[in-house]
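Saturday, quiet lab. Running sequence design on the structure tokens for the scaffold JK sent over.
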């Protein structure tokens, strides 16, 4: 596997895995995460595809941005992909990364050939009460203080709090999460919520002519797992639920998740 690591394009860190002659597959992480969250599935994907991972603005090793509005982040990603000369691409987004991926397809249908959404809540009413540890870590009034004193063990627990299976949290992901500012994280969450409140993801996808794969953990503690079926109304969409899996299928079920993405990238189904 060839690896091209660490360049910044349009203000975002971009990591390339696999042959650059292979079809492009773009992976977008969720809020409070980084491209390292995809580590367990990348080796399988890079055997067949040119895998492009980004750290969104203010996350991982990418600097902060003036705005975290979802369409603006998608526009920045589009500019980066244009600079890299990549199109059309298969785009996979985890959690709120699915919102960036959807906004990218809305803005640039010439750029996105197919779209995979992993654990992406369809609308605000699908959000479940969050685990107590996450409420302590990110919510008022103690959130800012707890955020400043986070240990590596606390950061790992923040990830595993939304998992249903035991997982090994990649060291790179822990390091990347440590660099995310509290105010940035809260701002990103607010803009993500506004995007799906303005119009649900199924409604947005229905307006697009693009193949869609939806992967949901059947034991997701962040989004109501039954809300995955809201996507059943989307033309050209296929919904896959993974039994016993929580919010991080890439970490909890990397083999199954990788197989689903490989099949979808190859066939659009």
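Result came back. Writing it out in full:
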């Amino acid at each position: 596997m060839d690896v091209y690591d660490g360049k910044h394009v349009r203000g975002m860190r971009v990591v390339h895995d696999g042959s650059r002659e292979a079809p492009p597959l773009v992976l977008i992480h969720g809020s409070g995460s980084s491209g390292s969250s995809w580590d367990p599935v990348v080796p399988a994907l890079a055997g067949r595809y040119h895998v492009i991972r980004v750290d969104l603005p203010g996350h991982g090793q990418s600097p902060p941005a003036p705005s975290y509005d979802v369409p603006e982040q998608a526009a920045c990603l589009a500019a980066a992909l244009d600079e890299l000369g990549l199109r059309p691409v298969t785009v996979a987004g985890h959690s709120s990364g699915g919102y960036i991926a959807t906004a990218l397809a809305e803005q640039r249908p010439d750029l996105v050939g197919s779209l995979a959404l992993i654990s992406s809540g369809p609308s605000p009413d699908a959000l479940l009460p969050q685990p107590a540890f996450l409420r302590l870590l990110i919510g008022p009034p103690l959130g800012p203080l707890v955020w400043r004193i986070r240990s590596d063990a606390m950061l790992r627990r923040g990830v595993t709090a939304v998992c249903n299976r035991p997982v090994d949290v990649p060291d790179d992901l822990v390091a990347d999460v440590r660099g995310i500012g509290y105010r940035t994280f809260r701002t990103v969450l607010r803009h993500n919520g506004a995007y799906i409140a303005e119009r649900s993801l199924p409604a947005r996808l229905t307006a697009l002519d693009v193949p869609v794969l939806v992967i949901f953990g059947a034991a997701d503690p962040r989004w109501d797992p039954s809300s995955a079926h809201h996507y059943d109304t989307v033309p050209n969409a296929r919904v896959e639920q993974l039994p016993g899996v929580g919010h991080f299928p890439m970490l909890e079920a990397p083999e199954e998740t990788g197989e689903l993405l490989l099949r979808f990238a190859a066939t659009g189904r």
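Notes for JK: The chain is about 40% helix and 20% strand. The two ends are 26 Å apart (CA to CA). Ask whether to fix the surface positions before the next round.
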